[in-house]
């Protein structure tokens, strides 16, 4: 007979919970009869927590759930729910997670785990002192293309890694014309925690380190390409955060890479994200779903003619990295790893220390941009 495991889902009406955590992870696990952990099945029992009861009821009905709550303290006092997940307002996260830990809950949290590094260090210390388990969402490393790139790098076929290039971005409309912005306006307001650096570079931390190894230091520059945008009410507002960033990243291994990210660029790449890695033994390029490889043995001799277009297709000689494993949604993979960690002590995918390091890279990039200098990761974590 299956056992239940109670999970409080704070911020259940948030976009990330409704796009990913509920429909792609928790609800499918419930509908499949639970998750097999050590030969037993554990079915999530969800308590949807938020501030708006009407929205909570709509979300619950959408997924066939029936338990909602608007009182955080009352939810935390319920012993039927030993796990607390937070996808609520980022600015409230340190306080909410601290209360959950003090209430005896194991915690799993969306990113960024904190905005201030000292808050993160305090949470880790508290969780350790109380003996509570903790996890952080790091979903992008489970994307099919990046899984293939990681497998390729770990196979040794690339040899010693010398350099890499990560390019990400697409055009976010300003909202002045017929097409509204595709991202919420708070992303472009500093007082609301907006800005590309703190939004995307925490992702790039675990992607780069998960595939290539630890980051030593970074130098970066962020800027605002579109100084005015139109919010959800149709009102123009001044953008006071960065919407574009370029960084040079040096790894502990000595490899050096360039990372560019922008919400003001038009795509002329194979994907919205491309991650190109060069090694002595070969090179690999990954997108969100695909990955291509060119070993040194088949690397062609190239030349150019300034007077004539030689018509060379430089993608010839590259081979697609095959799919060797079935790929699952990254959010589900994270949930499965965390639940197995809580129930059976299995290794977790990422914890608060990892989440804090994610934030540290975002902070390092921000400090570098403001002060015009290299920032060592050891300065921050």
TrEMBL record:
Q: Which GO terms fall under molecular function for this chain's record?
A: nucleotide binding; oxidoreductase activity
Q: Which InterPro entries match?
A: Gfo/Idh/MocA-like_OxRdtase_N (IPR000683), Gfo/Idh/MocA_oxidoreduct (IPR051317), GFO_IDH_MocA-like_dom (IPR055170), NAD(P)-bd_dom_sf (IPR036291)
Q: Where is the Gfo/Idh/MocA-like oxidoreductase N-terminal domain?
A: 48-132
Residue stretches making up the GFO/IDH/MocA-like oxidoreductase domain: 148-283
Q: Which UniProt keywords apply?
A: Oxidoreductase
Q: Which PANTHER family match?
A: CONSERVED EXPRESSED OXIDOREDUCTASE (EUROFUNG) (PTHR43708), CONSERVED EXPRESSED OXIDOREDUCTASE (EUROFUNG)-RELATED (PTHR43708:SF5)
Which named protein is this? Gfo/Idh/MocA family oxidoreductase
Q: Organism source for this protein?
A: Acuticoccus mangrovi
The lineage, from the top, is: Bacteria, Pseudomonadati, Pseudomonadota, Alphaproteobacteria, Hyphomicrobiales
